[in-house]
Structures are given as structure tokens and as C-alpha cells.
Amino acid sequence: MGIELDVLVGHPEHDLLFVATQVARAAGLKNPSQSVTQFKNGHTGLKGLHQWRGITTAYIKYVDPKNPIPGTPGSNVLQVNSWVADEAWVYKMLLKGHAPASEPFRKWVTEEVLPTIRKTGKYDAEQSTNPIAMGLMDEILAETVTPSYEKSERLAGS
């Protein structure tokens, strides 16, 4: 079992965007909204966090009335004042939390990825037998280029 998060893809300035409170919840932080607020207040410049209302215009041309993007009428995932986070922010939160579901991810990053980078200067997920690395490689191979809103895309785990 891995961590499932709503993922927004196709923004011209961000490869992936995640709902910040979902990430905090997946990380096992007790009060997700408060955790996001504390994180953005405690870090200079809000790097990695973006208010949804500030980036929605990039998605307007992709709106499908049958499958609305977050923050548009008919969507219940995001409100205009919600915060979305980039990939680096997601990793920071998942490493900070204590949720059992995110433990395999933390263990993989701290016991395999980072030590391998320190020793060799790189990490090649294709060479790993770790289920998380293999799952990520499967996702990369199956990834499409079409900008869309993907519900419950698996971040890591099997």
C-alpha cells in the first residue's frame, strides 16, 4: 500500500502540483491545515507552496465540464484559497511526518537513495530492486504528456 494523492500535471511552470493538506495528512501530521500554515510561515519565501487562485489561469484551456479541474465549479477537491505544493515540498513533508503509509517512502529515501547518491554521485531507480523504485519506474514509463488532473495518482509504494 502506498500513498495516494491528487496530482495536477501540465502547468507550464510546474511539472507536478499536489494538494498541500493532502500531503500533510499523508505524512501523518496531526492537523494538516495547521501544518501547512506553520510550514509556510516558518520558511522564507514560501518556496514550493502556491495559492491555487494564483495559478489556475494556466489550466483554463484544459477544463473539461465532465471532469472539472480543482477549484472550478463542480470540483470538490480545492477551493480558490487552497495551497498546492511542488514536488520538493511534498518530499519535505513526507520526510517530516510519521504516518505508517509514508514509512516505506522515508525508509527508501534515507536508506537507499541518499546513501547511493553520497557514494556514487547518482541514483538509478532502474537498477533498484526496491518496490518503491520499481513502482516509480513503471509510472514514468506509463506517463502521458497530456496536461490533465489525475485523481489519486500513486506517489510511492506498492
TrEMBL record:
Pfam families: Bro-N (PF02498). Residues 1-121 form the Bro-N domain. PROSITE patterns: BRO_N. This is Bro-N domain-containing protein.
